[in-house]
Amino acid sequence: MTMTEQKIALASLSRHLYRKGWMEGTGGNLSLRSAGRILITPSGANKGRIRGEDILELDGEGAPLDGGNRKPSAETAIHRVLYTLFPQAGAVIHVHTPEAILASLRGKTALPLPPLEVIKGMGFPLPEEAPPIPIFDNDPSVDRIARDIENRLRNTPAPLPVLLIRHHGTTVWGNTLDDALRHIELAEFCFRVILSLPYPSPAPDT
Ligand SMILES: CSCCC(=O)C(=O)COP(=O)(O)O
Ligand SMILES: [Zn+2]
Q1: Following DSSP, what letter does each residue of 145-205 receive, concatenated?
Q2: Is the distance from CB of 58 to CB of 32 less than 8 angstroms?
Q3: Which residues are noted in the entry as Zn(2+)-binding (predicted)?
Q4: What is the pLDDT of residues 78-96, one digit of tens each?
Q5: Is the shortest distance between the CB of 75 and ligand 1 below 6 Å?
Q6: Residue 82, pLDDT score
Q7: How far apart are CA 189 and CA 116, in angstroms?
Q8: pLDDT at position 203
Q9: What ipTM was predicted for this assembly?
Q10: How far apart are CA 43 and CA 13, in angstroms?
Q11: What is the pLDDT of residues 27-84, one digit of tens each?
Q12: Separation of CA 165 and ligand 1 centre (Å)
């Protein structure tokens, strides 16, 4: 795919996620990594109206190479840290859903998962052995959130490709945009299941 085609694919996915109600009120952001560059959605834009030409290209240091007056996502630092931590990652998706926010309140630092079959679609063939989803505190400084993510995930041997930011939303990554889309759909599916379970878990019958 050319850079232009990649920008069009990213913009099209942004509109798709907006139509699902996952990027309300300018929330959420998406990026692709390609040939050492990051293509990312603009900051503060309505994600349901993004076109290919709105996508910014960043160099290896995160500096915009195009975009005119537009600024890259305010959460670029989180995307960059995930690309550094996971060299195979080619795409990052961040959404705001009520389910993610409620799920982020169900753990201090991590959300345990029931052994759901769909976890296989996030790269874990044995759902009962899947690690919990890490939860990071929200912070007015995105750089601080990014640092927390880096510090914790660099010491986590095989994390699920998903994290929660408390009171904020979900971020996933994948080797391709399609992989990241599958991961966000499955993570949000897990949150809906978890929220329908009693909390705190009742003591098991003996
Ligand atoms: C009204 S959303 C607040 C910022 C945010 O959390 C987000 O996901 C969107 O930020 P961006 O700079 O990528 O538009
Ligand atoms: Zn956000």
Answers
A1: HHHHHHHHHTT-SS--SEEEETTTEEEEEESSHHHHHHHHHHHHHHHHHHHHS-SSPPPPP
A2: no
A3: 94, 96
A4: 999 999 999 999 999 999 9
A5: yes
A6: 98
A7: 10
A8: 80
A9: 0.99
A10: 16
A11: 999 999 999 999 999 999 999 999 999 999 999 899 999 878 999 999 999 999 999 9
A12: 13
Complete domains list, the chain, with CATH: 3-196 (3.40.225.10)
Instruction: Note the Cα 13 to chain centre separation in Å.
Output: 13
Q: Which atom of ligand 1 is nearest to the CA of 25?
A: 1
Query: CA torsion sign, 201 to 137 to 96 to 186?
Result: negative
Nearest atom (ligand 1) to Cα of 74: 12
Beta strands in the chain (DSSP E): 29-34, 37-40, 56-58, 91-95, 110-111, 133-136, 162-165, 169-174
The pairing of beta strand 133-136 with beta strand 162-165? parallel
